[in-house]
Specification:
The chain is about 30% helix and about 25% strand. It is built from 18 helices and 33 strands. Helix 13 runs antiparallel to helix 15.
Length: about 775
Amino acid sequence: MTKKIRDLGAPPAALPSREDILAFIAREREAMSRAGNAGKIGKREIARAFGVKGADRIGLKRILAELEAEGAVERRGKRLAKPGALPAVVLADIVGRDRDGELIAAPAEWDSDELGAPPRIRISAPRRPKPGEPLPGVGDRALVRAEPDRDAGPNDPPYAGRVVKLLSKARARIVGVLRVAANGVAHIEPVEKKQAGREMVIAAEDRGEAKDGDLVSVDLIGKTRLGAPRARVRETLGSLATEKAISMIALRVHGVPDEFRAEAVAEAAAALPARLEAHREDWRELPLVTIDPPDAKDHDDAVFAEPDTASDNPGGHIVTVAIADVAYYVRPHSALDKDALERGNSVYFPDRVVAMLPERISNDLCSLKPNEDRPALAVRMRISDKGHKLGHTFHRVMMRSKAKLNYAQAQEALDGRPDEICAPLMERVLEPLFRAYKSADQARELRAPLELELPERKILLKADGTVDRIVVPPRLSTHRLIEEFMILANVAAAEVLEENRQQLIYRAHDEPSREKVAALSEFLATIGVKLAKGQVLRPSHFNVILARVRGKEHENIVNEIILRTQAQAEYTHENYGHFGLNLRRYAHFTSPIRRYADLVVHRALIRALKFGPGAMPEISAGELAEIAARISGAERRAMAAERETIDRLIAAHLAEQIGARFPARISGVTRAGLFVRLLDTGADGFIPAATLGREYFRYDEAGHALTSGSGESFRLGDIIEARLVEATPIAGALRFEVASGSRRGAPMKSGRLSGRGRVERAKQKRRK
């Protein structure tokens, strides 16, 4: 082992060997895990450990690049680790027991496609359990402190760990519909796609109060004599015909909490409106306004802009962003705080919102309602005429919103058609806001964040909870205005906390892995597009490609594949930047009503700037890592629940259209078949490869295509006509087949334009 050189007067050291570097990374990561933190191990730390200085750092950089290219290490921002290595604290599910009866866990979030099978963690039982503290069991989710197990055999779990915090006792993961046949025999029809076709028998004495057609959650209690699984009803969730049954399925399947504990409800009911106290500035005369979607029930951000009259900033602006002061009402370790941390964020379904905080807090005391006094944390930012942020100051204030606007309403006003609410605000509020945004947009263009064009669909429901129609809301300048000011405020929050050496939770987004970039490069080569190699990857490299294919036949497929190339954003107490936004530091500050990460940042600001009550208490890096792991997991849980609810609603909407033909785009290609997305509704479905024709279709992974021996192919992004064969609303599953005569956008038999033709015609209309 190369000796570490710490004496500044020592002679230059030889470069460490590859083996020395790998051993150092593994040893340091293990030591950090034992110490309960997750510090950074990067080029700087390796150079310091081995005494590499000056020009020798170039050689070290070359060795690290070679190790990364070979897959011996992987990079996250400026950190290095062995590929697939678990962090010091991991959100894990306890999945079973080994032969010795010890619990075995696996990471709750794991990219199996990229990293292979998730590593197992052997859980050590606590030596002295605390009285009354629940012990972990199979099916539980927990925060686990994991470290490599040096004594593990080849077939043993590679990690050993201990439960830091038990997040929830085992919940009934199986949700289904009770079906009672005419002969009285009952079974459960599971709602999850992966359990489709797996029917469970349920005896009369195990049904409880559930009736035929009721949505229930069940426990497996054994098998029948014929080997079929036997179940017992744990909870009756109501009739499947009720308005909110579809979202209830997602809540139960994913274990999303939807009821507040009694103590939290009592705290919310007892909360009193904040008063103008010594730690608050009086900003009630400042004409701040909120701009939100028309159906928003809580309003947590307000904005204002005015010209900067300072002589050193000609043409510049002062932009003010005020955010609801949730930290004043939700104090650390309170019942409200515990419920908010468990939820992590609000979950939005088409038929309901499962809020992070009770309505008394989220929709009343913290909502920035017009003409009512509300406490807020505000940031005042000076930006130049080119949009560059020159400085910022934070304030704890009492404000009074002058108006509640929606995006379309504000856009109409900026386009010269103000209504009776906007007309009095034009000169003092709306016009300065738009001028400041135009400046900020120039800086955004220079920053060049990732510019993916992925329209979002919105489901509108009827009174009975069924789908009325699906729309794509227009993308307005007012949307971009609010987004850009929120980004500026989030950056300012991260900067001021770093300046004050205050710990915080970052919103981080890693750059794409080398493997995914290599796969993208291979695909782009098949359509004659080259991705530059051998340089630092930036969002602008992707933007050049997106601009090159815009308006051409490959536009949608390239957008889709570049999206899949990206890493997943997460919350972390370590800063490795935000690749998609092309920012060196970024923290969520602007939505504390619906995101726990923002509440943590508010508390950190109150502590760092000595703003009074509600500050972050003393907290270790390990505890902050635990919070970041929990809320990252909660965010992914919410995304899955929201996505599956939409799938079920659309499947129910299309269930009566079996045999209908729809223009569709191929959104995924596998050996098993094609995933398709309908152009009109955005519904996702599957076409089995066996139904494509009599020929055998070969899977071309690099080209994202299925190709037959005669040359016929189905490729990611192709427009086809799909015929609906089967719809299973309870599972949100749709099965299609390629309609006869439909190949890669051929004209439809009905005489209508193919999907591709309709899209091109729509583009022509937009250009006009």
